[in-house]
Amino acid sequence: MLEITPAKVVEVIFLSRETTASAEAELRGLFAAMNVDERAHLTALAWVGRGTYAPEEFDQAVVVAEVEASAPTAEYLLGMTDLAENLEAGLEAMGIDVTAEEEDLL
């Protein structure tokens, strides 16, 4: 079960698509406000989305994200190529309707 709301993931998706300094600052603030579980689940979702883990391996990905976190989540995720696309694909792989979540946020 996800320890981060799909709405929060969609907010990260939207902000990570922006290329402005203010969007990056807002995204960093969002990461800083997340608890440890939310950050680990967000990272695991990105890994599922890029194909590092299969959806049925999500729990394992969360454990790895918690244990092997050697850099701040913001630095790691902001350095990830295609973060928004990976998170979208991760949500979809976990059976969450991204379009509905995006419409709710707008």
TrEMBL record:
It comes from Cypionkella sinensis. It holds the Pfam family DUF3775. InterPro entries: DUF3775 (IPR022254). This is DUF3775 domain-containing protein.
